[in-house]
Structures are given as structure tokens and as C-alpha cells.
Fold:
Amino acid sequence: MKDQIRRALQDQLLAMADDEFLLSHRNSEWCGHAPILEEDIAFANLALDEMGHALIWYQLHSDLAGEDRETYPDELVYRREIAGFRNVLLVEQPNGDWAFSMLRQYLFDAAETVRLRALLESEYRPIAEAAEKIQREELYHLRHTSLWVERLGLGTEESNRRMQRALDEIWPLAHQMFQPLPEEALLVEAGLVPDAAEMKDAWIAIVQPHLEVSDLSIPGAGTIRPPAARDQHSEHLREILADLHSVARAYPMESW
Amino acid sequence: MSDTQWPRFYVFKQDTPQDVHLAVGTVHAPDAEMALLNARDVFVRRPECFSLWVARAAEVLVVTREQGEALSFQAAEDAGGGQQRFHIFLRREREVQHSFAGTIEAPSRVHALQKAMDVFSAEKPRVWWIVPEKAVTISDPLETASWVGSAKDKAYRQPSFYRAQTLMRKVREERSRKGGDS
Structure:
């Protein structure tokens, strides 16, 4: 594999891993606080699944980077500075209310489902195999969050109002998920990753009808700002990392 | 009196095609579709799950043997209407879980109970559950296969994955090797 392509693929995998990892972290914060016990368990399960997905992508990244896949993911998570993270802003945002978290999860799950479907055809076999495994769980996530979005959208005046507010906040951020990374064109040409614009269309084809059926209005095109680059982060990520890194930094080299 | 709880659903799990469904617990959910998803999250932790059922608790007749005997005397003579199918679950002496015994056709729950008490008398159950088939939502077999797959890959979700005792022993040994307590 040419160096330039390998490095671009590494970046792609790191971005995917960071998204899953941060979202898993946010979801885990609901543990003990969800509105009902069954959802507490469901969301914890979801977070665990995503942690597993993040690990898979971090490991593939490690393989390409020539690092030890048993130890490098921990390095990436616990010792990388904020400037090195490549997640989208959407997954850094605090959990907000249940509507916000559920809608964010839904839009992310739909994007993941679309991406994984395409990655099944990747010319890079480890990615295609990983996508096959991960997709089984993502379908379940998408089902779960779809049902919730519908029930909250059509539920009561309050649940609809909260969902609409969540959609208004999240929709402009969601587009960053389909912003191509630098060098991504090389990967698309080599059949390693799908085209971002095509994925976005596929994503809209899933979420738009479902949101409408759930009595939610999608904000107008005028609200979309040009998406930030993935190396730009907010104070939210700084707070997460301060918390996440504190124990590992106080006790380096301990095993848990 | 208002009830802010979601309706309850009984959950029945069949581990392998060679097993019968066993009652494993209950979940609350706004409806049957979500109950099935919740049941998967709450009860399908270990890889063995071939089929999952959920049934609205409000529609299930639950009686002890004594209550059943009393009820059967009161069953209406003329049931009218058509036959329905009822899944019979029972719990035998010294058993912990209710297990699936069979499916009976009857015009009503009480009639199904009467028949069941006759058909399954040799089991000498302590408790009967009469579950109308129409109250049951079953898992999609293709889906259940995918749940099992993911549970198998996730050993770290089981408490047995974490060997805290061995680790603590190691920590103690290292501390005593270094001489005295820290």
C-alpha cells in the first residue's frame, strides 16, 4: 500500500474510532440517570457496543501505523492531547435532556448504518470484515433509537417540543459527519472508503421521512454553517479529557 | 389512581431449539415492539438465546394450584365465541422458573386453565400461567441470531471476565515483596 494512501486510511480509521469512543463516553454518563431502568440498561449496552466498535477501529489504525494493537489504543485514548482528536463536534456535546441524546444517537446510528453498508465493499479486507461484525449491532441500535424518536415525536406536547429543540440544535452539527477528510479523495478512488456525498444522500433518505413521520420539522438549509474541520474542538472535549485522563496520568503504567 | 409506569411485559426466553421457553422476568415498555428490544437488553446477556417472547402482563392469568382449583369450579358453562390459543407455562415443585408446557385451544383463559389442569396434571405444578397467544410478540429469528453473535464477542460484558481477586492477590504479593506496607 502506498504511504500516502496508508496514512490517509489511518486518519480515516482514527476519525471513526474517535467518534465512536466519545459518543460511547457520553452515553455512559446516562448510566444511573436514564428516565427508566430498562433504558438505563439499554443505553449502557449501546455504550458498550460502541466502545467495542471504537476498539476495533483503533486496532486497525494501530496495525496500519505499525504499532502494537494491544497497547496503542490505550495510548491513543489516555495520552493523546486534545489537538490530536479527530471526532466530530456532535459527539462532544453534553448529553442535554433525553430527547437530545436520543436524537443525536439516532442521527449518528443512521449515518453509521449507511457508512458500514458501504464499507462492506471496501477493497481493504480488514475494514470490510470489521464492518460486517459491527453492522449487526448497528442495525439494532438504529431500530432502538428510531422507535424512540417516533414515540417522543408523536408522544406529548412536551416530548415533541423537546425533540424539535434537539433537532434544531443537532441538525446543523450533523452535517460534519459527511465532511470529507483531507486526502479522502484518494481513498474513494482506490475503493477503500465510500464517497461522502453519496453517504449523505443515503442518510437523508433514511432520516428525513422518519423525522417527518415523527412530526418533527427539519431546519432549513439556511441554518447549516460550513462544517468545522475535525481537528477543531470545543471546551466540551477539554472537560471530557481532563476527567478521562486524570487517573491514567496520576498512575501511569498501572494495569486495571 | 394514576400509574406513571409503562405497562409490564413478561419475558420468555428459549436458549436453544432443544429447550423450551422459560420465564426469565419482566420489563416495562410503552408497547410490545419496544418491550422486545428492552427484553433483549435486559435478559440476553449471555450468548444463549434462540427465541424471545414478550407478553402483556395484564393479559396473562397467573394462579396458584389452589386458586386454579377454586377458579375451575366457577368457569362459565357456556363460553360462546370461538377458540383461541393459549400458551401454558407452569412451575413445578422446587422449580424456580416457569417453563413452557404446551399450547391449548379454548374459548377463554379460565377454560384453558381447566383444560391445562387436566392435560398437565402429572406435572403437579404449583403455579399456572395462561398466556393468550395474541398477547405474545415473538422475536425475529434472524435478529436473535445477530444478538447471539454480538454477545459472544463481548466477553468483557460478563463479570467473569474481570479477575479482581487474582489481581488483588498480585498487588498484595508485590507489596509484601517490597517489604512492609506502603
Observations:
- The first strand of chain B starts at residue 8 and ends at 14.
- Helices of chain B lie at 32-43, 65-74, 109-119, 141-153, 164-177.
